[in-house]
Amino acid sequence: MTAPRIFFYVQHLLGIGHIARASRIADAMASDGFDVTVVTGGLPVPGFPGDNIRTIELPPVVASNVGFSGLADANGQAAGEEFLSRRRDLLLQAFDEAKPDVVIIEAFPFGRRQMRFELLPLIDAIENAEPRPKLLSSVRDILQENRKAGRDEETVKLIKDHFDAVLIHGDPNFVRLEDTFPLTSEIAARLRYTGLVAPPPAPEPAEVFDIIASAGGGAVGLELIRAARDAAASLPSYLSWLLITGPNLPEADFSALSDDAPANVTLVRFRKDFPSLLRGAKVSISQAGYNTVGDLLRSDCRSILIPFVAAGETEQTVRAERLKALGLADILPEKGLTLEVVKTAIEKALAAPRRPAVSLDLDGAKKTAAIIRSMIG
Fold first, then answer.
1. In angstroms, rounded to a whole number, what is the distance separating the alpha carbons of residues 77 and 91?
2. Which whole-number Å values give the CA distances from 369 to 199, 212, 359, in the listed order?
3. Per-residue pLDDT tens for 8-47?
């Protein structure tokens, strides 16, 4: 009996959160015996998807601005019609050759409207395939709010017309889809909550740092890292610091940070063992992205969250406020992130007891695989 074939489309445009979550899900499906192909459409990210996952890399596009209103190629040039048509054709060819039993589209139609030029033709190809594969949407638990008028209705129509299920990667006891998507009741029959896609419990760390500051993918978050570096210089020198800038921080910014870093600071772009390092840390300073929070919830270090709010982003603020209400994090504003503000927050966190145990469902990757297996029999 052949393994069920999964065709998993994921497009990251700014950070690395989408590709990291999708990679964890793909690994879990492969471990459950699925034949998984991940189709990526963003800049390459070291370590994602995993080594045991078949990957098809489309010519990459990125967000041309923080507001996600346009697409650019890997060189920062506006993505023209010829370039996008070639991407679309490569995606449709990959689908035709894969002959999947299940297609998973990450974020769409709740997000990634910029990718309709290739996703709507892909959906047409799915509908015309014989036999027709199952079509699933894979979406995080908290959506961006303040969407334009008519967008939610458009999303509902696409779900009703084409999607067999919506996989919500969250714990409904923490946040529910209707908290950020008002038309949830119209698609309730298709919803499947998987739990949060957190990493498995990490091994003991190979190194121990007292304080870890991280900026996700690094496309944003420079001020966070800079404020942490300055705080390290003004707090006791026996505290050891690890600053993780993210792979996408511009080289000039990384060099400037490195030149001015005090002796008790280690500066890196990326650490694959980040979840392990959190186990040994006293305090973490980070944004409030989905994957970073998943890593934090597997540890018991004290967490200071600085939600990303540029261009009207609301998702990280919602997540951070829910965690604060549970006593699992403190929050600092992204604007006005001064040395004194960060220093005071760190001193408070160092003096606080270890945070309470987490009762949220963190096994979303494995449960996603189980849900899909139950759907295909």
1. 21
2. 15, 32, 22
3. 999 998 778 899 999 999 999 999 999 999 999 999 887 7
Q: What pLDDT score was predicted for residue 14?
A: 78
User: What per-residue confidence (pLDDT) applies to 68?
Assistant: 57
* Residue type (1 letter), 196: L
Per-residue b/e over 283-314, b at no fewer than 16 CB within 10 Å? bbbbbbbbbbbbbbbbbbbbbbbbbbbeeebb
Centre a 10 Å sphere on the Cβ of residue 177 and count the other Cβ atoms it contains.
23
Between CA 198 and CA 292 the distance in angstroms is 9
* Tens-digit pLDDT profile for residues 97-133: 999 999 999 999 999 999 999 999 999 999 999 999 9
Separation of alpha carbons 368 and 252, rounded Å: 40
Q: Is the pTM of this model over 0.85?
A: yes
| pLDDT at res. 69 | 64
Nearest to 123 by CA among 151, 159, 71: 159
Note whether 277 and 242 are within 8 A (CB). Answer: yes
- Separation CA 316–CA 332 (nearest Å): 12
